[in-house]
User: Fold these one by one.
Assistant:
Number 1:
Amino acid sequence: MDQPTALDRRQFLLRSGAGAVMAAPLLSCSRSEPEPVVRPAGVPIGPFGAESTAEEVTAGIDLTGKLALVTGATSGLGLETARVLAQRGASVIVAGRSLGKAETACRELGMDTQPLALELEQGESIVTAAQSVLALERPIDILVCNAGIMALPQLEQVGGIEKQFAVNHLGHFMLVNRLLPAVEAAAQGRIVIVSSLGYRWAPEAGIEFDNLSGERDYEPNRMYGQSKLANALFSLELARRFRESGSTATANALHPGVINTNLGRHFDAWKRVAASLIGWTFMKSIEEGAATSCYLATAPALSTVSGYYFEDCNPVVPTPGKHMDDLAMAQRLWDVSRELCTEYLV
């Protein structure tokens, strides 16, 4: 008898009584109810899908001589992304919240890796990290913005800004802008931004520019959704700017899937237990979760694809009405982000 696929197992779980009760909160960032998948016109559709792994989507690709940087690369999806890029020959900068954690990850990986201390909630740390990378005087071929935090149970702020927005969006906004000269110096630099299907949790108005402090009606998932919408809009505006300037660099955003990693460390205890016990029935493995990032970072077919949103290694049109294609909001987000981060930008 054929073994059930991950999709079969997930649908079985969703249709079973107790399993559905336990799984529902954990699936809230996945397509728990199947929706028609709409593909954007003119973007190549690859042979990979939800069960493809990072190794599978990069098979046969030689990254020798290329430089990659992965944020949040000391565990989970970031570590696997760094491992596979290094396995394919790239020199990989492993960025972690402390130099010690980054060094430990590099020792674990072996290969051609180097550690970098990067604390995304601290502007000074971002500036120092970017200066260290630019001092290498090498083009950055691949920049994967993977690090993030999720569903902080209570309001926390960084410099008066809600922490999830500050870390997930503003931290990467500062880093990318600092490193843009090196990315654009590459023959075909790629910026890959890990967003999330959680963009659907964002406020109805999209980015609440009058509530970036999070003090009005704070709700963990809502603010996480706003930060993930910001990630996607950032990639959209980056892509527009690359096109207008004639740059060969690209920027795309993605949803990696639902994976049991440290990202869920702020969930209620029972959710974490449920994920450990039954998560295998409907969640992606870490190897599968890193596949879309690695595909966007390396696939030859995507060398000119920019400004799109990907799930399961393929482009999709995001849920209508959720501001993911709002060019005006993306430009305003860029302008407001610059104002908030002025002292840490070039």
Number 2:
Amino acid sequence: MNRVIAALWALAAVLAALAGIQAPPLPDHPWLVAALPVMVGVMLAGLFVPPARAVIAWPVRGLRRRPSLLWLALLVVIFGGLGAWVVTDQPTNGRALLPHEYAWLLLLLWLTLYLLCYDLDADQARAMGAQLGRSRLAGVLVTLTTLLLLFSVVEAYLRVFYITTDGYGFTAMNYHWYKNFYWGHYNSLGYRDYEPKPDAPGLTRVAVVGDSFAMGHGINNLDDTFAQILERDLGENYDVNLVAQSGWDTDVHLAYLENFPLRPDIVILSYYLNDIDYLLQDPAVNPDSHFTFPQNPALYWVVLNFFAPNYLYYNLLQFTSPTRTANHLLDLVNAHLNDAYWGPQAERLGQIVDWTAARGMRLIVLLWPYVTQPDVSQPATARVKAFFEGRGVTVVDMTDVLRGQDSPQLVVNRFDAHPGVLAHRLAAEALLPVITGG
């Protein structure tokens, strides 16, 4: 090795060892304890103990006599090592790398430099090139390397630029969005919200109750959700508190509202058609039954652990099916029109109306249609609206607000019809005059 490569080889070993020292003992990474001391020992011997150099060079000299085998070994080290890192640690944008991950990547760099450069001279390199040129395996290796590079580029792109949600919570990207932007990003009350203001004379407290629509599913910046926009627009004399979690249905809203430690003056119930999901557990009527999952264990493992096949399977093969998405929406609409489901749902909603009225709280319902096709969901939203208005409750129906809007910011992304940044802003603007009487 020339001096620059030798210095880089040594530096990779030193930095890997330092990263390994900083990493806590992890049972999933026993290699950390065994591999790093061996790597440092080999590096020191290779640089400073001349008699040891021939021993260290022996394995790679054998591979260089068969350049195709050396090429294959490099593919295993580089792509196999990166694949093991991806499967084990699932690196994604929004999460900082941990010390043991740096140690692993530097170890891969160290091994790659060893295979490529250790004890290599120009004559050996020319001889290997000539031998590869005559090998019938060269074309196969070029094709394999190209495919692995393309797969790696797509995988890296998705992990860096496509950590986002889908409409149904199926994809790996959705899971890591929740991991990086939602789970653990809570206030002391357990909600994706800032800390509530303390009670004070003249303070009006608003509680927003709901599910993924209320908490901002797919919106990275909490400040872009309608609850936070509304709080800013209302001013210092208001405090808007979130009482919402992704996945909540109507059957749990009242229980969490009852247990909320602060007494609201105004309750905003954010309602979407899937709030009736708790009644649709039978596969014959469950809206999610229109989407399929990999049944083959090997395919399931690949789709679960790598973003590229995950994106291909779910986003391109599942969510782009007009039949699946239309049937999912129609199942929700039909559930609201079917008295067998609407009866229990109306009873639950009535309990919320009665509870707020008994405590002198003002109830406002923010009624969401299907964001991109509000007219399709109108038969169901009209029934919900009529129910609440019949009980004397103010309803802010987003159907008319969203009808005719044409902007990609209305939804989170093309595979997720949850309200996007623009829809949240429009919701806050529609709620503001209702709350203030302006």
Number 3:
Amino acid sequence: MQDLGILGGPNSAAQAINSKSQIVGFSDLSQTVTHAVLWTAPNQIQDRGTLGGNYATAQSINDLGQVVGWSTLQ
């Protein structure tokens, strides 16, 4: 098991991994803002943002790096 890091808030979670070891999920920026994230080796967390709201999560990733998930708009 390995700590994947956070974006500054209290929580993060991995939702899926592909065969290239790319991991997607979410990470909190604060108590009220959560962004979708992509983790790549070694220990690099990338903020994938939202569609304008305060919450987004990435739920799956294929081997081409295409991600699906959802986001609030407000």
